[in-house]
Write a structure and sequence with these properties.
Elements (H helix, E strand, L loop, with lengths): L22 H26 L3 E5 L7 H9 L32 H14 L3 H26 L1 H19 L1 H11 L3 H15 L5 H9 L20 H21 L4 H27 L6 E5 L3 H4 L3 E6 L2 H31 L4 E2 L2 H7 L7 E2 H13 L1 H8 L4 H15 L2 H5 L3 E2 L5 E6 L16 E5 L4 E3 L11 E5 L3 E3 L1 H10 L2 E6 L17 E6 L9 H4 L9 E5 L7 H5 L6 E5 L19 E5 L18 E3 L22 E3 L20 E3 L20 E3 L20 E3 L20 E3 L20 E3 L23 E2 L2 H4 L4 H8 L2
Keywords: Cell membrane, Disulfide bond, Endoplasmic reticulum, Ion channel, Ion transport, Leucine-rich repeat, Membrane, Phosphoprotein, Repeat, Transmembrane, Transmembrane helix, Transport
Pfam family, one: Pannexin_like
Catalytic activity: taurine(out) = taurine(in); iodide(out) = iodide(in); 2',3'-cGAMP(out) = 2',3'-cGAMP(in); chloride(in) = chloride(out)
Length: about 800
């Protein structure tokens, strides 16, 4: 007998695939085994036993002439001869029973084969083979999607990831934490969510709810007491698993081949079921125990009509009825499967029940093949989907990243990165991390926190531990903030710097920092966005004193004007975009410092002359050619710093003499050729930068500048320096490099406070030994060719080398 295990290859699949076999597939598999046993049993009987047994059929003669005719033709009559009577020569013998046919064994075998092939109905002959073939087709259909290359690869990958997600320690930990949440907490969370959805449109309400963490469950803040529960290796494995799930979801959601394959194989099984029921019901009656066989083989056997017995007819009849019952149940199960497939869309899967049960509200719904496999998993055990959902949650992933981040960045490691920034504050710079470590908030001495290129930054309530925090820098970071943390920053934050590539990175909560004193914004703003209502919220920054915007605005936003009453310094770096409509500057009466850099200005804006409190003006990198309007600066009595550098100015008007309050003046990087003597009537100048021009002559009136401490004519065409220059005895920095000077006057020794001297790039052959009288000048402060330095006396050189 053929063992059933020989057919295992038709239905064999990996044991792990059982999770994708719902109860109806398991049930039909057992039915297939039962039908397979019927087919194998019938085939075995067909092979091992006689199929049919035939005997010649006795025919009664109807007329006498027929017998005579038969005898005359030499054909044996079917009428049996009377038994021989006993005689003297034939002693008494046993009387024979039955009919004598005079057929031998080979003739019987021949008759049996002929009648089996010609007289027996094909259904009775091939019934067990049909059962076997149909059952194998059923088994192939049931498992074809596990074997087809286009679907089996997805299934294997899914089962592999599913098993890892199910067994991951991170899954156990995440679900165990949410399982401890009582019903009251769940109700509170739902109420908070509903309030956040129906929040008022007021500035404060929208500020907190737009990007706060009220929608994120509190339980997902990493608990320090359990931070070590997940070791580093397990954390890295879980992190890799999140990435695998993301990539797998992206790949599988693109198509629905698994769903289509399963539907098609189910439809095929239903069609086959209908065909089997139809023809089997009609032909099962053809399996008869007695069969009449009429074949023309008289020349070989002497008989034409036979009566045959189909030895397995009774058994096959019972097996056929049994098989029909199994097929009927199988078909009804397949019909139920079709109903389940089309009753609702299986190409969409919602984790709503998981979200309600676990409180992880950000688990996304999935579609296509991903959804279909999850529906199949639910028929096996819904716990698989629940545990798998943990790895679809961005909150869960962020929590894992946070845990790994805390383990990597310990407080001691963070303290090693502390440094003093430009504002003389103790700063911690963090660049390109996966998040913000909670251990940062254990460094209580921190004064400035700089975050750069960090996505999904979450500022928790624990920031309140940083009592000394005054400055926060966010460079290309998307930030969410807890409501309690926002309250802390409103009271304590003094300086905020935001650098953004996308407007979505601009935190809306910054407009509520009522104690903010300095705001630095760096990023691209379109003309429309510059009018956005969010910028109007700047008027709520009642303490703002310094505002710096490095962007591409075409005009000063109205929001900036709204804070003009208390704004003291404004910087606009426009990256070459032309700044027009500057009349709003007139409203900034309290402005003391103004920088309009790279704004494509061709003239000095007239609105500037209305800023009577202005002390510093910087018009760097514009397109200024003429500055005749400089005469109007005489009304700005407090103006002490004027920077007109990096322009195209060709001359300095004589009206410059009226700016008697100037202390710092920069004309570097222009096209000035002549210095007017009237310039030196501004006798309060302490800083004068004329570098990178085309100046050939320095007027002797420079000696009037008795307060001069810094003087630079680097990279000009000056051939000689007036001796009056050395009357400026307070001079500390003198830059005369890259000119055409050939002699350095010995009077330079009069500059007793000189600490920095640049003479490199001239035509000097020797340095005056009087440089030794400049006691503050050291070798580090003397910029000169080494060979020229060697021309100084040795004692002077030694003096300069000593600290």
């Amino acid at each position: 007998m053929i063992p059933v295990t020989e057919f295992r290859q038709f239905s064999e699949q990996q044991p792990a695939f059982r999770v994708l076999k719902p109860w109806w597939d398991v049930f039909t598999d057992y039915l297939s085994v039962a039908m397979l046993m019927i087919g194998v049993f019938g085939c075995t009987l067909q092979v091992m036993q006689d199929k049919i047994i035939c005997l010649p059929k006795r025919v009664q003669p109807s007329q006498n002439h027929s017998s005579v005719s038969n005898v005359s033709q030499g054909v044996a009559s079917t009428t049996p001869l009377p038994p021989p009577k006993p005689s003297a020569t034939n002693p008494a013998t046993v009387e024979m029973k039955g009919l004598k046919t005079d057929l031998d064994l080979q003739q019987y075998s021949f008759i049996n084969q002929i009648c089996y092939e010609r007289a027996l109905h094909w259904y009775a002959k091939y019934f067990p083979y049909l059962v076997l073939i149909h059952t194998l087709v059923f088994m192939l259909c049931s498992n074809f999607w596990f074997k087809f290359p286009g679907s089996s690869s997805k299934i294997e990958h899914f089962i592999s990831i599913l098993g890892k997600c199910f067994d991951s320690p991170w899954t156990t930990r995440a679900l165990s934490e949410v399982s401890g949440e009582d019903s009251e907490e769940k109700d509170n969370r739902k109420n908070n969510m509903s309030r956040s959805n129906t929040t008022q449109s007021g500035p404060e309400g929208s500020l907190v709810n737009s990007q706060s963490l009220k929608s994120i469950p509190e339980k997902f803040v990493v608990d320090k007491s359990t931070a070590g529960a997940l070791d580093k290796k397990e954390g890295e494995q879980a992190k890799a698993l999140f990435e695998k799930v993301k990539k797998f979801r992206l790949h599988v959601e693109e198509g629905d081949i698994l769903y289509a394959m399963y539907v098609r194989q189910t439809v095929l099984k239903v069609i086959k079921f209908l065909i089997i029921i139809a023809y089997n019901s009609a032909l099962v009656s053809k399996v008869q125990f007695t069969v009449d066989c009429n074949v023309d083989i008289q020349d070989m056997t002497g008989y034409k009509n036979f009566s045959c017995n189909h030895t397995m007819a009774h058994l096959f009849s019972k097996l056929s009825f049994c098989y029909l019952c199994f097929v009927s149940i199988y078909g009804l199960t397949c019909l139920y499967t079709l109903y389940w497939l089309f009753y609702r869309s299986l190409r969409e899967y919602s984790f709503e029940y998981v979200r309600q049960e676990t409180g992880i509200d950000d688990i996304p719904d999935v579609k296509n093949d991903f959804a279909f496999m999850l529906h199949m998993i639910d028929q096996y055990d819904p716990l698989y989907s629940k545990r798998f959902a943990v790895f679809l949650s961005e909150v869960s992933e962020n929590k894992l990243k946070q845990l790994n981040l805390n383990n990597e960045w310990t407080p001691d490691k963070l303290r090693q990165k502390l440094q003093t920034n430009a504002h003389n504050r103790l700063e911690l710079p963090l660049i390109m991390l996966s998040g913000l470590p909670d251990t940062v908030f254990e460094i209580t001495e921190l004064q400035s926190l700089k975050l750069e290129i960090i996505k999904n930054v979450m500022i928790p309530a624990t920031i309140a531990q940083l009592d000394n925090l005054q400055e926060l820098s966010l460079h290309q970071c998307s930030v969410k903030i807890h409501s309690a943390a926002l309250s802390f920053l409103k009271e304590n934050l003094k300086v905020l710097s935001v650098k953004f590539d996308d407007m979505r990175e601009l935190p809306l909560w910054m407009y509520g920092l009522r104690n903010l004193e300095e705001l630095y914004l760096v990023g691209s703003l379109s003309h429309d966005i510059s009018k956005n209502v969010t910028l109007e919220s700047l008027r709520d920054l009642k303490s703002l004193k310094i505002l710096s915007i490095k962007s591409n605005v075409s005009k000063i936003p109205q929001a900036v004007v709204d804070v003009s009453s208390h704004l003291q310094k404004m910087c606009i770096h426009n990256d070459g975009t032309k700044l027009v409509m500057l009349n709003n500057l007139k409203k900034m009466a309290n402005l003391t410092e103004l920088e309009l850099v790279h704004c494509d200005l061709e003239r000095i804006p007239h609105a500037v002359f209305s800023l009577l409190s202005l002390q510093e003006l910087d018009l760097k990198e514009n397109n200024l050619k003429s500055i005749e309007e400089i005469v109007s600066f005489q009304h700005l009595r407090k103006l002490t710093v004027l920077k007109l550098w990096h322009n195209s100015i060709t001359y300095i008007p004589e009206h410059i003499k009226k700016l008697t309050s100037l202390e710092r003046l920069s004309f570097s990087h222009n096209k000035i050729e002549v210095l007017p003597s009237h310039l030196f009537l501004c006798n309060k100048i302490r800083y004068l930068d004329l570098s990178y021009n085309d100046i050939r002559f320095i007027p002797p009136e420079i000696g009037v500048l008795q307060s001069l401490q810094y003087f630079s004519i680097t990279c000009n065409k000056v051939e000689s320096l007036p001796d009056e220059l050395y009357f400026c005895k307070k001079l500390k920095t003198l830059k005369i490099g890259k000119n055409s000077l050939s002699v350095l006057s010995p009077k330079i020794g009069n500059l007793l406070f000189l600490s920095y001297l640049d003479v490199k790039g001239n035509h000097f052959e020797i340095l005056p030994p009087e440089l030794g009288d400049c006691r503050a000048l050291k070798r580090a402060g003397l910029v000169v060719e080494d060979a020229l330095f060697e021309t100084l006396p040795s004692d002077v050189r030694e003096q300069m080398k000593t600290e």
